[in-house]
């Protein structure tokens, strides 16, 4: 095996017959030049051949390959990004941003304190025994988990935060900040009911069935403060739990998704500015930002306005009518005054951006290529 490895390496070298030496050409990171030189010197000394290896920089017009320095903490996130595509030389490395965004977006979907604690315990076990496990053959599945041990730790930590926000521990509600802020109201008088004489109901913690049995209605008083952090525990186990949670998480996912896409498009601007690629900035970055934010960014604004004003408008209805019936506005989709005219303006500008994204850049690049071919001939 050792001889095969030697011959395999020698086959990668070229022979200089006049100087009777072997020549190897390779890309070396700038920070590693001294390390390579020291390694060659030690190899020559250990071989006891009396000949020294020389490291000679070569001038070339070839484009350098992409190399990112990683460690045991960042290598997992770099592998995730490289699975989708490797950035060009000197481009922004998305893996640096992924270290924060990937665990948080996972936690938004996974948020549960109980399950997060199990993930943290598993990751802590792998980290505590990493020196021992690194020397073993763990197999494909365990090796993948071991390589992502720091990522799993972050996933668990972020999921604890979102789990507290969702108020879930193994899908059960928690009352860390006290009981629910909803109260049992008397429909006739409009006042909150006092605690009944029987046990099982208290002003700060009660069951809806007890309130209804007592002849009241569950309402949230405008004079009271909401639950301190996260979702009020009264929502868990109710008939309206699924519609409420689905609506909340779907709208929150739209907000986070659009912000994430805007963040990604901004990275392309940094690359364009570095390479002085004005064509990509004008024909890609600007129309992409306008198209994304004039449609989906507008939807995000409607979501925030609806949350802040308590509007009962159906945003599904708003977005469908925005494309099928531009300019028309009914009560079901009304969020603010002048909404119909604004939607027509946003839609027209967005449609104009589509041909700008598709046609100018390819045609201009084709002309540049034809001009370069004529100059060569």
Features:
377 residues, mainly alpha, two-stranded antiparallel sheet, 6 strands, proton-transporting ATPase activity, rotational mechanism
Number of E strands: 6
Strand arrangement, major sheet:
1-2
Shape summary = flat
Structural class: mainly alpha
Mean pLDDT: 85
The rounded distance between the terminal residues' Cα atoms is 53 Å
The radius of gyration computed from the alpha-carbon positions, rounded to a whole number of angstroms, is: 31 Å
Helix fraction by DSSP (H/I, runs of at least 4):
55-70%
**How would a textbook summarize the main sheet?**
2 strands, antiparallel
Content of β-strand:
under 5%
Number of domains: 3
Q: What is the string of helix and strand elements? A: HEEHHHHHHHEEEHEHHHHH
Low-confidence stretches: 195-206
Main location: membrane
GO biological process, one term: vacuolar acidification
Function: Essential component of the vacuolar proton pump (V-ATPase), a multimeric enzyme that catalyzes the translocation of protons across the membranes. Required for assembly and activity of the V-ATPase.
GO molecular function, one term: proton-transporting ATPase activity, rotational mechanism
